[in-house]
């Protein structure tokens, strides 16, 4: 039987609920101390809380304080506050603090039963969803349900357990390393090491010895023989991030390694066989670099048997909210701050912002919002997004373009808010369905048409 905690100092009401709510195992408390003790003992999914409690039952101070304590101890509990007819203001304050619903006295069993039933249903649904999310994130670390990400995930599933070389293309912070790790995790090499190296962050003269290792005395400071990243990755996967920044002489050495599958350490003569799979990533336009002879064509073809484009966050519509929710849950757990969700204005701001730093930027914004927030729902102001600048340097000053960009963005946002239902999208935008169809065609929003959920 589901457990319900009733916090009320009126013994008459306690009795009424005990005999009236037979579908639940009802436990009682009459003040803060007993309420918290019962909460810890029974961990009820739903609580009813009378706001007027001792020491001063004539106002809501103690009730609101208990509410805050309950939500910080068990953040997913649904608290229904009960208050006198004349004190709607306190009830609204409680909702702002994170109460699930409020109920004005006198208590009528049929009404409170419906509210309770809905609260239990919701809490069970939320727990199921969290469990599903956890299972899903164990299965894959790539969070997202946009068309582009689903397609990319399918490709990962197909190529992970092969030796095909994969080149990941995408802006900084789009998740290239996450994809590379997933390729490794889903391959037969999963038990072996995953070694990542960023070719752009290591000075040119050190990159060779970092990758290939060196023999003692190979250069000043080489006091002992040291294996490089390639050797460390033996039996596993080597992730070469920012491969476009690899200097040309090293590209030649890399190509030789990929053809012969043996390395020579810097200053060494011995050929050492190494068995690795190489996954590369870059934000650069490699074909253009090839055309300008800044990147070797033969190496490019060897590294990019499959090219996987990872789109920027702003083109992944509802993924932004999905990822935001994921980061919110994990940071509120990690930082022990009971954030219950995103307020509507925060969702709107997240969808409007252009995310030049992609998922890494989103992650940072949510983390600081969780730290800064002093209410249960994160608001737009907690996110501190600079919406006026459009989030990036590519500002458009042509009036027609500005209007068209704004229109197609508004359509996408409305579509997300309308849960992918076109009739509702049209309603939200204040236009007819045919007009919406015409605009979708005009702006080439074909993904919206194909994702339409007819309810
Ligand atoms: N689909 C995703 N689901 C969950 N977290 C993600 C996803 N994509 C990226 N992240 C997170 O976003 C951050 C940036 O991702 P990552 O380092 O993989 O990006 P990147 O494209 O390799 O960036 P850079 O090119 O700057 O190295 C990481 O903390 C990562 O865990």
TrEMBL record:
All residue ranges annotated as the Response regulatory domain in the record: 3-120
InterPro entries: AAA+_ATPase, AAA_lid_NorR, CheY-like_superfamily, Homeodomain-like_sf, HTH_Fis, P-loop_NTPase, PEP-CTERM_resp_reg, Sig_transdc_resp-reg_receiver
Gene Ontology biological-process annotations: phosphorelay signal transduction system; regulation of DNA-templated transcription
UniProt GO MF annotations: ATP binding; sequence-specific DNA binding
Keywords, sorted A to Z: ATP-binding, DNA-binding, Nucleotide-binding, Phosphoprotein, Transcription, Transcription regulation
4-aspartylphosphate PTM positions: 50
Domain Sigma-54 factor interaction span(s) in chain numbering: 142-371
PROSITE patterns: RESPONSE_REGULATORY (PS50110), SIGMA54_INTERACT_1 (PS00675), SIGMA54_INTERACT_2 (PS00676), SIGMA54_INTERACT_3 (PS00688), SIGMA54_INTERACT_4 (PS50045)
One Pfam family linked to the record: AAA_lid_14
Residue ranges the record marks as coiled coil: none
NCBIfam families: PEP_resp_reg (TIGR02915)
Annotated protein name in UniProt: Nitrogen assimilation regulatory protein
Species in which this protein is naturally found: Saliniradius amylolyticus
């Amino acid at each position: 039987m589901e457990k319900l905690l009733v916090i009320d100092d009126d013994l008459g009401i306690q009795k009424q609920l005990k005999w009236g709510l037979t579908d639940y195992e009802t436990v009682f408390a009459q003040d803060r101390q007993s309420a918290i003790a019962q909460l810890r003992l029974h961990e009820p999914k739903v609580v009813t809380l009378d706001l007027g409690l001792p020491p001063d039952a004539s106002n809501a101070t103690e009730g609101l304080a208990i509410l805050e304590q309950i939500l910080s101890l068990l953040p997913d509990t649904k608290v229904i506050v009960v208050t006198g007819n004349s004190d709607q203001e306190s009830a609204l304050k409680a909702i702002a603090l994170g109460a699930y619903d409020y109920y004005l006295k006198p208590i009528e069993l049929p009404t409170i039963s419906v509210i309770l039933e809905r609260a239990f249903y919701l809490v069970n649904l939320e727990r199921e969803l969290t469990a599903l999310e956890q299972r899903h994130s164990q299965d894959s670390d790539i969070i997202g349900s946009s068309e582009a990400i689903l397609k990319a995930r399918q490709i990962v599933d197909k190529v992970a357990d092969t030796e095909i070389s994969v080149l990941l293309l995408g802006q900084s912070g789009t998740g290239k390393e996450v994809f590379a790790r997933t390729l490794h995790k889903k391959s037969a090499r999963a038990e072996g090491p995953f070694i990542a190296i960023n070719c752009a962050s290591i000075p040119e003269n050190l990159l060779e010895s970092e990758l290939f290792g060196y023999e003692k005395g190979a250069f000043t400071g080489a006091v002992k023989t040291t294996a490089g990243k390639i050797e460390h990755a033996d039996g596993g996967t080597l992730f070469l991030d920012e491969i476009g920044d690899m200097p040309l002489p090293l590209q030649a050495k890399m190509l030789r390694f990929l053809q012969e599958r043996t390395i020579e350490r810097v200053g060494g003569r011995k050929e050492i066989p190494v068995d690795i799979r190489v996954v590369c990533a870059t934000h650069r336009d490699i074909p253009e670099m090839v055309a300008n002879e800044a990147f070797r064509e033969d190496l490019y073809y060897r590294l990019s048997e499959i090219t996987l484009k990872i789109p920027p966050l702003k083109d992944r519509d509802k993924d932004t909210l999905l990822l935001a929710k994921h980061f919110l849950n994990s940071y509120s757990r990690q930082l022990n701050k009971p954030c219950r969700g995103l307020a509507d204005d925060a969702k709107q701001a997240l969808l409007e912002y252009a995310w030049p730093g992609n998922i890494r930027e989103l992650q940072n914004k949510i983390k600081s919002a969780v730290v800064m927030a002093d209410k249960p729902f994160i608001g737009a102001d907690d996110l501190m997004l600079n919406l006026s600048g459009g989030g990036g340097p590519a500002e458009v000053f042509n009036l027609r373009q500005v209007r068209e960009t704004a229109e197609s963005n508004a359509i996408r946002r409305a579509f997300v808010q309308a849960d992918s239902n076109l009739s509702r999208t049209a309603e939200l935008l204040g236009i007819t369905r045919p007009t919406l169809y015409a605009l979708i065609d005009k702006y080439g929003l074909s993904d919206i048409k194909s994702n339409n959920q007819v309810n």
